Amino acid sequence: MPPKKAATTRRTRRTKKPGVTIPDAIRLMTEEHGPFANEPRLDPAHELTFTILSQHTSDRNSERAFRSLMERFGTLEAVAAADVDAIEEAISGGGLAKIKAPRIKTVLNRILELNDGSLDLTFLAEMPMDEARAWLRQLPGIGPKSAGIILSFSLGMPAMAVDTHIFRVSQRLGIIGPKVNADKAHEVLEAAMAPEDVYPFHAAFITHGRKVCKAQRPLCGACVVNYGCPSRDEKAMQEMAEAAAAVANDSADSDRPDGQAPGRRRRGGKSATPTPVPHTQVVKELQP
To answer: pLDDT (tens digit, 9 = 90+) per residue, 162-191?
Structure first.
């Protein structure tokens, strides 16, 4: 009997049960960080190329590399026909050029082979989503995240694209289990919500992960869903509450007519400027 009790205790300790629903998380994160504008994106082939360039680098570097690539070759057809060395030189400012240059050339030429010599992938929007995803996944180096980005952002389909921020926030909130890997998370999260919630979820969770639920030292005290987070840091929340109380006391003791403590500026209201999804922020400037 005792061994069974111990096993049950260990199992319970590892289990994280979400205390916040997905719709509530989307709403609260959007109120905090949004609104999020779902703006037009690049066509699928250009989006795919940009996505490869964005892997393991910053938005700024991937934008620089994409601009340089298109300025050098003009069209993706020219990129597909170019030497790998020339592609590598064009994207050298984006990082990992030796890996990404042959990958871009290989993927573009594979599309040409599969699609009767055309790089137009808009036909994917007419296919059932699972078939469209499978078509993209046959391309070398295109995993579930890249396929989700192309289907969702370029073609407006309700496909989930799980990056490291979305994966981390989802696991900490208990929306996906600790044994679910990044690839499986696409399937689990997509099935957990209505199609119309997929984009708002992506926008809210990726922004929340970047701004608040960081990989190191998450700002649990400033998190709008900390009330239902099984991973929250109680100490950090207490420290945030004590700091807020100290600020309130300083303001109450101030002799300034506006009630603010000396040397402190009044915090303004939330900006009316929409907060874009990080990937969208970069791409929208690349539209012709």
So the answer is: 999 999 999 999 999 999 998 899 999 999
> Mind listing the pLDDT tens digit for each residue in 45-82?
999 999 999 888 888 888 999 999 999 999 999 999 99
Q: What CA–CA distances, in Å, run from 127 to 51, 113, 119?
A: 21, 19, 17
CA angle 285, 286, 288 (to 5 degrees): 110
Q: In which region does residue 96 sit, left (phi positive, over 0), alpha (psi from -120 to 50) or beta (all else)?
A: left
Asked if 79 and 73 count as a contact pair (C-beta separation under 8 A), the reply is yes
Angle of helix 182-191 versus helix 164-173 axis, rounded to 10 = 60
Contact 178, 10 (CB under 8 A): no
Residues with Cβ < 8 Å from 197, sequence gap 6 or more? Answer: 22, 23, 26
